[in-house]
Amino acid sequence: MFNSEVQGDEAERMTKGERTRALIRETALRSFRERGYDDTTIRLIAQEAGVSVGNASHYFPTKSHLVQELYLDVQQGHRTAAAELLPGTTDLVERLRIAYGTGLDGLAPFHRFAPGFLAAAVSPRSPINPLSADSSPALEIVAALFRDVVDGARHGLPTDIARALPDALVLGHLLLALFWVYDRSPGQRRTRRLLDRGLKLLALALPLARLPLLRAPLREALDLIGEVRA
After folding, report:
1. Are 98 and 86 in contact (CB under 8 A)?
2. Are residues 27 and 100 in the same domain?
3. In this structure, are 129 and 154 located in the same domain?
4. Burial class of residue 31 in the structure, from the number of CB atoms within 10 Å of its CB (0-12 exposed, 13-18 middle, 19+ buried)
5. Number of domains in the chain
6. Which domain holds residue 190?
7. What is the DSSP letter of 218?
8. Do both 40 and 122 map to the same domain?
9. Residues 220, 224, 229, 230: what is their CA dihedral angle, to the nearest 10 degrees?
10. Cα(149)–Cα(166) distance, rounded to whole angstroms?
11. Do the beta carbons of residue 168 and residue 62 sit within 8 Å?
C-alpha cells in the first residue's frame, strides 16, 4: 500500500517504474523504523511490497542503497523541522539549539535500533558510513542546514570564521549522534544535557573569536575540522 507521499495526483504523474520504486522505498523505510537494520532484508521488503526480489534489487541493488534513502528521509525531515523554528530567532546559540535539538528529535524513533545501524556503518569502508561518498547527499542536507543557521544569525564573527564554522558544526552533529547511540538514560536525557552544556560553553567562547590573538589558531582549528569532513 502506497505511503501518502506517493498517493493522489503525484502517483498519477509517476510512471509504473517510478511508482514501484517509491513503493519499495517506503516499504523499506517503514521496516527500518519498525525492525531496525539487522531484521530488514531485501527479501522481506520485496515480500511486503508485493514485488519479486529481482524487481526490488533492480531499483535498490543492496540494503545499503535503501539505508541511504533512510538517511535522506531523516535529514530532509530534520531540515524541515528546523526551518519551521529558525525564523523565530537570530541568536546564533539559540539557532544551534534548534538545529541540534530537531536533529535529536528526528533520530528518537530509531534509538532502540541504533546499535545495529552503528555496527554496520562504523567501518571506514562501509557505504553507509556517514562520512562515505555514498552518504554525501544526506550529509550535504545537514551542512546546508548549518550554513543557514550561521548565515541567518547576528553573531559579529569574522567572515572567515563564520564561513568555516558550519563544517565544525556538522562534525558536532555527528559526534552528538554517536553519544546519543550509547546513551541509555531515559529519553536520552544525558545527550540533551550534554548539548545544553556545550551550547553554554560555546556562548562564552564565541566572542573570543573576535580577538586578533585567537583568530588565527581558531581558523586553523576550523580548517583541520574541514579536512576531517573532506
Report:
1. yes
2. no
3. yes
4. buried
5. 2
6. 63-229
7. H
8. no
9. 90
10. 8
11. no
Packing angle of the helix pair 159-182, 92-107 (nearest 10 deg): 30
* 12-27 per-residue burial string, b: 16 or more CB within 10 A, e: under 16: eeeeeeebbbbbbbbb
C-alpha cell at 117: 545501524
| Same domain assignment for residues 191 and 164 | yes
Cell of 73: 528521509
Residue type present at position 23? L
**What pLDDT, in 10s, does the model give residues 129-169?**
999 999 999 999 999 999 999 999 998 898 888 988 999 99
Residue 224: phi and psi, rounded to 5, are -65, -40
As a dihedral over the C-alpha atoms of residue 28, residue 20, residue 135, residue 4, rounded to 10 degrees, the angle is: -70
Euclidean distance between CA atoms 202 and 187, whole angstroms? 24
Q: Which tens digit of pLDDT belongs to each residue from 178-190?
A: 999 999 999 999 9
Q: Note whether 136 and 56 are within 8 A (CB).
A: no
